[in-house]
User: What shape does this take?
Amino acid sequence: MLRYSLKRLLLAFVTAFIILTLTFILVKALPVTLKISTSAGERMGFYDSQVALGYFSVIVKPETEHYQPTMKIIESFVVDKKEYFYYPRPILEQYFSWLGNIFTKWDWGTSTSLELNASAIRLIGRRLPVSMSINIIVVLVSVPLGILLGIYAGLKKNTWIDHTISTLIMIFVSIPGFVVITFLIFFFSYQTGWLPPSWPSSTAPLGTRILGYIIPVLALSFGSICGYGRGVRAEL
Assistant: This one.
């Protein structure tokens, strides 16, 4: 059992490493655009931090003549009659800099869309409790309902009830969660107005914050309920 557990843990780390690597490379292949309206000084500070992290390079004119028109310049700034040109390093260089920053500084990079230059770890940590609470509720909801659904379908084997449950399970297993949540938001938020269309803020009333859990929990529960139900039905 210990050997099996260690093997599964190692595979989990390998899988996470592959996912993080592919995500980093694909995101870095996108055009660099700052999605936040900021001043030139704040943007320049952001690019300076990217240079320090090893993701960007900077050249200064007229102090250097290494500037080439073929460089993919993202943005330039003029300070004290000097022009600073910022351009991204090759993706592989950025990737190894990213790995080095993680292992030596535990620095996972900074945000370009939520809070300019904010630590990625800090942003994740701020949202992690909400994600964990939603997933805990999903497990508490989907496991008993899925088991009960599978037992009921097994007891009604080869009847119209069994066929109906099996058909619904096949449908909901096939629909991605983001499609389900889109329809839930459209109907329960925009059509009926019963539930909030986005996650309530921490200062919202308690009732509104509780209602905010319903749509994400439902969207994540459908697939899990169907998965548990199908497994129990097959075993019975």
